[in-house]
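A protein record pairs a chain with a discrete description of its three-dimensional fold. The following entry can be read in just this way:
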Amino acid sequence: MKMRLAQYGISHDHASGKARVMKESDDIDFAGVFEPSLEVRETLGQNPVYEGVHRFASKEEMLGDETIVGIAVQGRVSRLGEADT
């Protein structure tokens, strides 16, 4: 049975690599990503690794999905303590 995982944030330097691993793994059902920053979504979100990946509309949508068993947090390290990171 596959683990269902998601990714919160795409601005960390390793975010696209983590997404690629989750997307390509036979053991993971990649549920999608949520990025709180519109600017980051419009720039880094254009990376081909995110093509075809579900984009959660809100953090509440992602966090409320009870089928997700783990979330990779991939925001900027300097912003990890902020509420909307």
User: Anything to note?
Assistant: Strands lie at 3-8, 28-34, 70-73. Residues 3-79 form a domain with the Rossmann fold fold (CATH 3.40.50.720). The mean pLDDT is 91.
